[in-house]
Amino acid sequence: MTGSPAAIEAVDVSRTYELDGVSVPALRGVSLTVAPGDYVALVGPSGSGKSTLMHLLGGLDRPTGGRLVIGGREVARLSAPELAALRNETIGFVFQAFHLLPRTSAVDNVALPLVYRGVGARQRRERAAAMLGRVGLGHRLDHRPNQLSGGEQQRVAIARALVTDPTVLLADEPTGNLDSVTGAAVLELLERLNTESGVALVMVTHDHEVAARARRRIAMRDGVVVSDSAAGDAGAARQPHDRPLSGDAGRPDTLVPAPSAEPRSASGSGPGHPPGGSGGAAGATGRLPHPGSPSGPDAGQAGRDPRPGTFADAEANRATTPGDVDADADAKRAATTADADADVHTVRAAGPADGDADRGGVRP
Question: What confidence score (pLDDT) does residue 232 get?
Fold first, then answer.
């Protein structure tokens, strides 16, 4: 791809929010380039600026400083309608919470971005049906979200993101609401579409196993990029900002849950902003001009543990369980021995006396 223009380019980009007269810097001089067909994992702890950066890369917000170019157009020079049109033509969004319209069929959910592009109803349905076929849901066209499993809902969301043929697909924790088996299937689908269609894939994740699948890994902390490395580089190893899970060598970095049946949603997912995400169903269509509260998209993530049940809990259980078992076993053995000795002494002491009494009772 030498010589190809960048799909997204950020140069010394900053974003500062004003909260009650106090300036809160969410991004501080971030520079990066996303090439066509790239596969990037964006990682970092809560509050590191990942979601703020995703807002900017998706054209849902404007930087306070620096230069941001999406699809060859500088964001600072675009009006609100022009920026909305750029999002619709260039960016596809996939969210952790799916954000499908709950009372709308799968095919109409997928066709929604084409409405804002002015595509006719018949052509919209044909393109949406074809995209659902590509993600393996050609037999679910008229099903509503509450009639689909979690994995199927995420496939509908992926089809919606790709129906406009974007150059960049932004996925914010796309497997966060799925079990391990379904999540792996969704990742394989995203990777296949990245390879076949050449769409650049930028994925925010807390899961180191998910991040390890990407060809490139960008790590953030405190609003800055602390590492940007290709897969297999030494820099791709865990950085100091990453949350440690266990000190034991040889164990995986994440606690993978046991496979479970996919739960079906009772009501589907409504529009709005996902927690720590970058918009809702309207954002996926390019119609979301306001990207969240003034405190910044990352503010809601503070103090939240995105992965409950880490190896720290397992280590605590393993550290206490053997000692408890040994103590219980020793106590039981001591009690049993004491009881047996007491019984023996009682029988010995009582035996002769009882015998004499019995013999005395039968003698004249």
Answer: 63
Which residue intervals of 259-310 are DSSP H helices?
A: 281-284
Using alpha carbons, select from 273, 282, 279, 276 the residue that is nearest to residue 101: 282
Closest residue by Cα to residue 84 from 286, 283, 291: 286
Question: Own/partner pairs for 334-342, CB < 8 Å, 24+ apart?
Answer: none
Q: Which amino acid is at 25?
A: P
Q: What is the per-residue pLDDT for 5?
A: 85
Which two structure tokens, joined as six digits, stand for 326? 């040994």
| Residue 18 host element (H or E) | strand 8-19
How many other C-beta atoms are found inside a 10 Å radius of the C-beta of residue 256? 14
CA nearest to 39, candidates 204, 194, 171 = 194
Which residues of the chain are under the pLDDT cut of 50? 1-2, 234-282, 287-325, 327, 329, 331-332, 335, 337-338, 340, 342-364
Structure tokens at 346: 């009682």
So what's the pLDDT on residue 231?
73
% of the chain surpassing 90 pLDDT: 58
CA distances, 102 to each of 23, 154, 284, 290 (Å): 38, 13, 15, 22
Sign of CA dihedral 242, 243, 245, 248: positive
pLDDT of residue 307: 40
Ramachandran quadrant class, 2 (left: phi over 0; alpha: psi -120 to 50; beta: rest): beta
Task: State the Cα–Cα distance between residues 295 and 271, nearest whole angstrom.
Answer: 21
Closest CA relative to residue 205, chosen from 276, 145, 265, 271? 276
By DSSP bridging, strand 65-70 and strand 73-74 are antiparallel
C-alpha angle with apex 205: 284 to 185, nearest 5 degrees?
A: 80
CB 156 within 8 A of CB 110: yes
d(CA 336, CA 67): 78
Amino acid at 259: P
- DSSP designation for 118: T
Can you tell me the distance from the alpha carbon of 253 to that of 270, in angstroms, rounded to the nearest whole number?
33
The string of DSSP codes covering 80-99 is HHHHHHHHHHHEEEEETT--
Mean pLDDT of the chain, nearest integer: 75
